[in-house]
Design goal:
Blueprint lengths: L4 E6 L5 H12 L3 E2 L2 H10 L3 H6 L8 H5 L19 H18 L2 E4 L3 H4 L6 E7 L2 H12 L3 H22 L13 E4 H4 L1 H16 L2
Parallel strand pairs: 1-3, 1-4, 2-3, 4-5
Protein name: Cytidylate kinase-like family protein
């Protein structure tokens, strides 16, 4: 097998990032999250902060976004007035992810990557979630916040990720199991065991 890509969508506090990072170490490949923003900035010449502003979330009114025309699907030129639009920023990131999938092996967290790469044969996609109680405990420990603050952060983050996914996929929903090769409940089996399962799947799928 040549190069391959692994996409991981994750509920906030579910441990998806930890699972992706450990999996990358085992497979000897990079795990990208915010690094995609840096690559997109370097590719386009736009400030990385612009990409950070719309990282897995919709800026402005969600309703007004939904009332816009269907997003254009290709990157526009710097001369186009839409060059710094949210949609073009998304398309620049999507193009980076597709270029990576064509040339190298990697893991990418979020970024609608399962949708961006849905037509590629060398891609496997996973969704990681956990019960709210487990996510709250994880966020409290990791971020040093109260239980109430953890609940608020999870609700807010999962909502903007879901809205972002729905918008840029044309109405699909983020937690749809059909989007993924496998959906994992990290609380039931444990995060390290999730890494074991995904690694086995990837090695079997790509005959590594």
């Amino acid at each position: 097998m040549g190069n391959y890509a692994i996409t991981i969508a994750r509920g906030f506090g579910s441990g998806g990032k930890e699972i992706g990072t450990k999996l990358a170490q085992r497979l000897g490949i990079p795990c990208y999250e915010h690094q995609i923003l840096k690559l997109a900035s370097e590719e386009s010449g736009l400030n990385e902060a612009l990409f950070g502003r719309v990282d897995e979330k919709l800026s402005g009114s969600h309703l007004s976004k939904m009332l816009q025309k269907i997003p254009f699907t290709s990157v526009v030129s710097p001369q186009d007035k839409r060059f710094e639009s949210d949609i073009n920023l998304f398309n620049i990131q999507a193009e980076i992810i597709r270029k990576l999938a064509a040339t190298t092996s990697f893991i990418v967290l979020g970024k609608c990557a399962d949708h961006v790469l849905k037509d590629c044969d060398n891609v496997v996609s996973f969704y990681v979630e956990a019960p709210r109680s487990a996510c709250v405990k994880s966020i409290m420990n990791k971020m040093g916040v109260s239980e109430a603050q953890a609940h608020k952060l999870i609700s807010k983050t999962d909502k903007y990720r879901a809205d972002y996914y729905k918008y840029y996929t044309g109405g699909n929903y983020w937690t749809n199991p059909v989007n993924y090769d496998m959906t994992l409940n990290s609380d039931r089996i444990g995060r390290n065991e999730c890494v074991d399962l995904v690694e086995h799947y990837v090695r079997t799928k790509f005959k590594l």
